[in-house]
Amino acid sequence: MKILFLNGPNLNLLGTRQPEIYGRDTLASIEASVQVRAQALGVSVEFRQTNDEGQLVTWIQQAKGAVHAIALNAAAYTHTSIALRDAIAAVELPVIELHLSNIHARESFRHHSMIAPVCRGQISGFGALSYILALEAAVNVN
User: Fold this and answer.
1) Residue 99 annotated to the active site
2) Under CATH, what is the fold of the domain 2-140?
3) Is 77 a catalytic residue?
4) 99, 104, 111, 112: which is the annotated catalytic residue?
5) Which residues, at least 6 apart from 55, have a Cβ–Cβ distance to it below 8 Å?
C-alpha cells in the first residue's frame, strides 16, 4: 500500500512560520515521523510540497492508479480552490484532508473548506500529530 502526502503553500516554512499556530516541527521532521509510523504499518509513503495550485492538481490527477490514498494539506487552497476540489472528485481515491491547526477555531474565512465535501474525512488541530492520524486514516479507509 502506498499513501501520497501532498502539501500546499507555505508548508515549506514550517518550524519558522508562526510557530505559535503551526508548531516548531519542520515538514522534514514531520515526514520522518510519518515514515517511522508507515514502516511499522507496512506501508510506503511519499511526501511532496509545492506552493503552486496547478502542481497540486497535476499530482492528484497522476495519483489515480499509482497510490491507494492521498493525505492532503492544501493549506490556504483549502478555502479557495475549486480546481483542487474537481481534481479530488475526478480521481475517485480516498483523500484525507489534514491541517496542523484547528481551522474551525481560527479566522472565519478558514472555517469553510472547498475540498471537504469530496474528501473522505478531515483531521485538524493536532499539530504534527495530524499527519500521523491522516496516515492511520488513509490506511484504514481502504
Assistant:
1) yes
2) Rossmann fold (3.40.50)
3) no
4) 99
5) none
